[in-house]
Write a structure and sequence with these properties.
The chain is α/β, with parallel strands linked by helices and 214 residues long. The protein has one domain: TIM Barrel, CATH 3.20.20. 31% of the residues lie in helices and 21% in strands. The chain has 7 helices and 10 strands. Strands 7-6-5-4-3-2-1-8 form an 8-stranded parallel beta sheet. A two-stranded antiparallel ribbon has the order 9-10. Helix 3 links the parallel strand 3 (58-63) and strand 4 (82-85). It is globular and about 40 Å long. Bound molecules: the ligand O=C(O)c1ccccc1N[C@@H]1O[C@H](COP(=O)(O)O)[C@@H](O)[C@H]1O.
């Protein structure tokens, strides 16, 4: 019987990719505002993409240690539902972003080993949502979107008082196993549904959503 797993497709840069994500049944779509990323979108592009998203699909803005000026510029133009903080934002900064934006905040936490799990407990007390992602390798240019998985067994028995998503190296071929091992109620993918960095593939998106929900 299909499970009620909700899927986020992140790093959408083109109208056809947004359409593919929505048609495939994504519950969340992500726009990346981080110039070092191949998935970065300018604010005007993000606005156009966001305006095509139907009600019921949550529009998520991904930022990395963004300052108020950038957040204000994004929020002034792009209709959004959730802010994803994917940098080293402290719990205090996160709370400030939430009250400035008036939006729920999802904090990404990188995991590579058991010692990294403490941060999830900390942010789980103050964030509206958690994103449990693979920790980037040392020296990586991007704090996420590296197509890298972590040992999902680290999450066995771990729960937090807020909704959470699993991310990091997911693709159609491994997402069902990742959900089985972690009990994740939601999953997030970027590079695993691309044909090239920043370019999504409609068939891979559809296969991912189907595998997550099968
Ligand atoms: O996708 C990016 O380019 C990106 C840049 C900076 C921070 C996070 C980014 N992506 C997020 O990383 C995870 C996992 O991505 P992947 O599936 O392993 O490629 C996902 O949450 C994206 O939202």
């Amino acid at each position: 019987m299909p499970k009620d797993i909700r899927v986020k497709i992140c790093g959408l840069t083109r109208a056809q990719d947004m359409e593919a994500a929505v048609s495939a049944g994504a519950s969340f779509v992500g726009l990346v505002f981080f110039p070092k990323s191949p998935r970065h979108v300018e604010i005007a592009t993000a606005r156009k993409l966001a305006l095509t998203v139907p009600p019921g699909v949550a529009k998520v803005a991904l930022t990395v240690n963004a300052e108020d000026a950038l957040l204000d510029a994004i929020l002034g133009e792009v209709p959004l539902d959730i802010l994803q903080l994917h940098g080293s934002e402290s719990p205090e900064r996160m709370a400030a972003v939430r009250s400035r934006s008036g939006l729920p905040v999802m904090k990404a936490v990188g995991v590579a080993e058991a010692a990294d799990l403490a941060a999830l407990d900390t942010y789980g007390r103050v964030a509206d949502m958690l994103l449990v992602d693979a920790k980037p390798p040392k020296g990586a240019a991007l704090p996420g979107g590296n197509g890298l998985a972590f040992d999902w067994r680290l999450l066995t028995g771990r729960r937090w008082p807020v909704p959470w998503m699993l991310a990091g190296g997911l693709e159609a071929g491994n997402v069902a196993e990742a959900i089985r091992l972690t009990g994740a109620p939601m999953v997030d993918v970027s590079s695993g549904v691309e044909s090239a960095p920043g370019l999504k593939d409609a068939a891979r998106i559809a296969a991912f959503v189907q595998a997550a929900q099968s």
